[in-house]
Amino acid sequence: MDSIQEKVLREVAARDIRFIRLWFTDVAGVLKSVAIDPGELEDAFAEGIGFDGSVIEGMTRVHESDMLLRPDASTFQMLPWRGEEDPVARMFCDVLTPDGQAARSDPRGVLERVVERAQERGFTVMVHPEIEFYLLQQPISVDNLKPVDSAGYFDHVARGHSNDFRRRAVRMLEDMGIAVEFSHHEGGPGQNEIDLRAVDAVSAADNIMTARTVIEEVALRENLAALFMPKPFIDHPGSGMHTHLSLLEGEENAFYDPSGDYQLSRTGRHFIAGLLEHAREIAAVTNQHVNSYKRLWGGGEAPSYVCWGHNNRSALIRVPLYKPEKRTAARIEYRALDPAANPYLALAVLITAGLDGIEHRLELVPEAEDNVWDLTDRERQVMGIEALPTSLASAVRLMRESDLVAGALGEEVFDYVVRNKEKEWREYRQQVTPQEIRQFLKVY
């Protein structure tokens, strides 16, 4: 048993923790949880805890149902909303097969394998996510989505729900060891954003899952509801999860070059080129729902076209303003990702695409200096700017032909995602919407 596991066991005993929740996600990115007694924890570290993987989306087939959860002791944290009277802790888990091998269908394992490939090339991947969501009044239903305020971008609402909510959510995240860089009101009524500080890729995905859970818990305790749907309102901006990426080589930022344009190194330029090259085929993972494409093509500063720019918010990839005194801040921002994505799979394909650009020394096309949304189709065609997929159906067709996505996700996860997304599109296509009824209804 390693020292971190021993430390966890001592803390569990010292704090008289009665329940330990083991967290993992299914392939769709839904958080799963099972509670164990502290007496089972030592065996869980050594051998794992058995569960029926066949009932978890995409995890395994019925005749291969036995699987194991092995907790990652480095992710041990108390759940602050449970209080100290009956304390509860949580750990993220890796999913194993009965013989102790990493399950190829585990989304966290998918990202861990991609990170290992990056490390073999000498890189540590750092990720800083910006999580947007809508805060709604209760009661909430399909026909009743009411934002808690009518404020806009960076507005301060006196005695507003959003201010108190963000303060409580940020404090709870920091109590769980998750550092928050910013929090503020976003552009839509009731829309908020919480930005997490940069950490390594696996920790970042764990933090995104934790943040979504914390945000939902705080909202419910204040008789509100948090919604991570990419485009819940026709007339208001969608919710994205702009994701900042950088690579470290040892202690040095591999994206930094003081002599490069925007202080961006050749490594950084190759990484962006890889993302642009593969942006269309990875979209079914970074934007995994039918509703995701209503955000991408519904205005509100969502990226619709495959291009990059410096401080150009109409571009898919942005190179943020560099701070001369902070070379570690050199990074790129991928703007298509939305908060309904499975963060493990989304980061896996983003990193793989960027590394492919480095490996093949892909040349970066000229930046887009104009507002890409305002250009005509002909102007974009002349500039070589392609569109992102306009629907989940077209995104899945592109993904199905992608060797890069298949290699990043592995055969099991790749096949499940394709089948699952095709099913989601079929179910959506069969729906009859109120708008269609209004189009044909004649009122006499």
UniProtKB/TrEMBL annotation:
It comes from Schaalia turicensis ACS-279-V-Col4. InterPro entries: Gln_synt_N, Gln_synt_N_sf, Gln_synth/guanido_kin_cat_dom, Gln_synth_cat_dom, Gln_synth_gly_rich_site. Keywords: ATP-binding, Ligase, Magnesium, Metal-binding, Nucleotide-binding. This is Glutamine synthetase, type I. Its cofactor is Mg(2+). One of its GO terms (molecular function) is ATP binding. GO terms for biological process: glutamine biosynthetic process. It comes from the Bacteria. PANTHER family: GAMMA-GLUTAMYLPOLYAMINE SYNTHETASE GLNA2, GAMMA-GLUTAMYLPUTRESCINE SYNTHETASE. Gene3D superfamilies: Glutamine synthetase, N-terminal domain, Glutamine synthetase/guanido kinase, catalytic domain. Pfam families: Gln-synt_C, Gln-synt_N. Belongs to the glutamine synthetase family. Residues 107-444 form the GS catalytic domain. Residues 15-100 form the GS beta-grasp domain.
